[in-house]
Design goal:
Blueprint lengths: L8 E2 L2 E2 L3 H23 L11 H17 L13 E2 L1 E3 L2 E2 L3 E2 L10 H13 L2 E2 L5 E2 L2 H9 L5 E7 L8 E3 L4 E2 L2 E6 L16 E5 L3 H9 L4 E5 L2 H9 L5 E5 H10 L5 E8 L5 E7 L5 H13 L2 H8 L4
Parallel strand pairs: 3-7, 4-8, 4-9, 13-14, 13-15
Antiparallel strand pairs: 1-2, 5-6, 9-17, 10-17, 11-17, 12-15, 12-16
Helix pairs in contact: 1-2, 3-8, 3-9
Length: about 300
């Protein structure tokens, strides 16, 4: 739990520095929202994020953003800046590969293009690169990435080597099983003694390993292949973020997969985008993402990609 900051500094930044305010905002968003999430989780709907919990979390994050961001933001603040941007391509509908296997599409991709329009930065090689999450993190740690995205949750561990945009989507984890091979699985409690897949280096992997006992856990880098493993009966179930599971189940009905039980670990499923630690561009992305929510752009894109 956060204590009071007696020396009024964060990572060597003094209280009057604008970046100090941004760092403090990110810390408050991470440490405060999970506490509220735990209290309100039982009031949320079975699936989706439109209930009391979601609205409260989003309202609080917006209030924090407005309190610590500048009052106005001019377009084109990053004109002349070239950024290396990666998205995780197995997180449909947030980021995935369709007809062109070199150019990702999806909600997060559209958000990045909207940020580009407003801030004026260019993309290296004029494109967004697909890259699995574990490789994204390695490049971010090595200073070889400017922005990463694709259904990525904000966690304390990731805050050690990244800055974040405001949280822009709240969801939770869900259990997915095969209706043909494991019809007995109806909830999280039914996984005892089962083999369960999780996505490597995901917040879901951390949650499952730290909280679920008496199950065999296997990690997989490619989430899509994991769903095929479940459908073929090679493993009993997979645990991952609900909207991504929902999309894959809906677009691949022949796999006979089903999401069951209540959403859980909502505090570990709050989506953000990551920038280099102490990036000079963090404040601009923070303000621009706030503007996208306030003017309805994020809502419009959620409707486009049918994200509940």
């Amino acid at each position: 739990m956060m204590g009071k900051c007696k020396n009024s500094s964060i990572n060597g930044l003094e209280e009057g520095d604008p970046v100090y305010k941004l760092k403090l905002t990110n810390l408050k968003i991470f440490y405060i929202l999970p506490k509220i999430s735990n209290k309100l989780e039982k009031q949320g709907s079975k699936f989706g994020t439109g209930g009391i919990m979601s609205k409260t979390l989003l309202a609080l994050s917006m209030a924090m953003a407005c309190a610590f961001s500048s009052n106005a933001m001019a377009d084109g603040e990053l004109n002349g800046v070239s950024l290396l941007v990666y998205v995780e391509p197995t997180t449909a509908p947030f980021a995935f590969l369709e007809d062109d296997f070199t150019k990702p599409v999806g909600f997060d991709v559209d958000v990045i293009y909207e940020l580009q329009k407003r801030l004026g930065f260019s993309l290296q090689e004029d494109r967004i690169f697909p890259l699995l999450r574990s490789d994204q993190f390695e490049r971010m740690k090595a200073g070889q990435a400017d922005l990463i995205a694709g259904g990525m949750s904000l966690t304390a561990d990731r805050a050690e080597f990244m800055d974040f945009t405001p949280i822009y989507f709240n969801t939770g984890l869900v259990v997915v099983h095969s209706k043909l091979h494991t019809p007995e699985i109806k909830s999280l409690e039914d996984l005892e003694g089962k083999t369960v897949l999780v996505s490597a280096n995901s917040s879901g992997e951390s949650y499952v390993k730290n909280n679920l006992k008496n199950i065999k856990i296997e990690s997989i880098a490619n989430l899509t292949l994991g769903f095929f493993d479940v459908a073929q009966g090679k493993v009993d179930a997979i645990i991952y973020d609900y909207p991504i599971c929902e999309y894959l189940i809906a677009t691949m009905p022949s796999l006979q997969l089903e999401a069951v039980g209540e959403l859980f670990a909502r505090e570990d499923s709050q989506y953000t985008m990551g920038l280099k630690r102490d990036s000079p561009y963090t404040r601009y992305f923070f303000n621009a993402m706030t503007a996208l929510r306030m003017d309805g752009t994020l809502d419009r894109l959620r409707e486009k990609w049918k994200i509940k």
